[in-house]
C-alpha cells in the first residue's frame, strides 16, 4: 500500500495519558469505596466546573504575557481569563462564598474529578490526574482536623490498604511559621521566601536532608542539569529550620511536647504545638493511635495552609520485575486553610480538608495485589461457529445478560482460534461454544479460561492437552446460565 504524506502521527499530548477499560473499572470501584466512607462520616457530594475564573485560583493568576504559569488558561469572549482548575479546594472556596447563606455550617462536602497542572511532566508525573477531596468549612478548631486524619485512615482501609501498611502523619504549619518569624522571615514582604522554604522541606522524602539544605540555601541542580533557586537562608537559619525534623519522639503526645519545648519562642509556634497536643489526645482517645502520627517532617507545599497539615503515607514495599524494592510514599494529604474562603468574603471562614491522589493510590494497590487477582474481569464471550446461526449466539448472550452476567457475542469475522485469542485479550472468564453437533444435541460447551490457563502450565505434551481438554465441559443448553454462574463462583 502506497504511503500518504498527509497522515497524522497518532500521539497523546505530553503529560497526558489514555486510560483503558481495566483502569477505568478499578477507578470506579475505588471511587465508590471512598464515596461510601465519606458519606458514612456525614459528607455530601458536590461537583464544580473544571474551569474557574483565574483570579479565583489565587497565586496562579496569569499575566498578559505569561497566561500559562502553573495553570492552563484561556481568555473568554469578554476578555476574562479562565483556567483549568489546579486542585479541588479553590473551586470549593468559591462555591462556599457564592452560596454561603444557604449552606449548613459547618459544611461537609466531597468532590471527585480531574485536576490540571501546567508543570514539567516526567515518569509518574502527569499534567492531568484524578483527586478525591473531603472538606469541612466553618469548623474553627482542630477537632475538625483530628476528624479529617481519622477519616483518612478509614478511607485507606476501605479501599484495601491493611492496617499497618499506612500512616497518617500530621504536623502544624504554625510551628514552622514561628521559626521563620524567629529567623527574620515574617511579614508579607517575605511571603515568597517562606513559600520556597516550605516547598524545600516538602521534598525531604525525595531529596533527603542534603538536598533540602541546598534548597534552603543558594539552590540545587538536579540530575538533568536544571537549577532550582533556593530560599537564600544562611547556614544558621537553615539549621534552625531543619531542627524541626529532629523533634519526633516515640508517641504523639511526646512529640507534641518536644515541639512545644523547642519552638515556643514565638506565640505562633507555641499555638501550633498546643494544637498538635490536642489532636494527639483526640486521635488516641478515638482509638487511632499508631494509625495517625504526629510528625514534624510534614509540611505540604501549598501556600494557603494556615494550621495543621497532614499526609497519608503508604509504608509497604513491593518489588518490580527486576526485584527492586518500590515504596509509593504519599498518596494524599491536606490541612487547614482558614484564609481561602475569606478571599471572597469580608468575614473569615475557617476550613480544613484533604485530597487523595486516586491514580497514585490505584497504582500502589495494583502493585500490592498483583495481576492474578484482577485477571478475569471481562465479559463472557459467546463464540460464533456458524455465521448463518449468529442469532442463536445472540439469544444465548441475552439469556446470560438477563441473569445479570456480563456477556457479548463475537462480532468479528475470524475463526475459532482467533476468537479464543480475542476472548483472552478481553480477560473473559469463560467462553460459550456451540457448533452444529452441539446444536443438534441441544448442548453447549463452556471453557473456563482461568482454570484452562492454570492447567496449561502443567501440561507440556500437545497430545495430552488435546485429549484432556482442561477446564472444558459440555452441558445441556437449558443449563447454560447455571453452569456459567458455577464457573464464575469458582473463580471468585
From TrEMBL:
Locations listed in the record: Cytoplasm
Subunit structure: Homodimer.
A Pfam family this chain is assigned to: tRNA-synt_His
GO MF annotation: an example: ATP binding
Protein known as: Histidine--tRNA ligase
GO cellular component term, pick one: cytoplasm
Keyword Nucleotide-binding: yes
Residue ranges of every copy of the Anticodon-binding domain listed in the record: 381-460
GO biological process, alphabetically ordered: histidyl-tRNA aminoacylation
Positions annotated to bind L-histidine: 87-89, 117, 131, 135, 300, 304-305
Keyword Cytoplasm listed: yes
Reactions accelerated catalytically: tRNA(His) + L-histidine + ATP = L-histidyl-tRNA(His) + AMP + diphosphate + H(+)
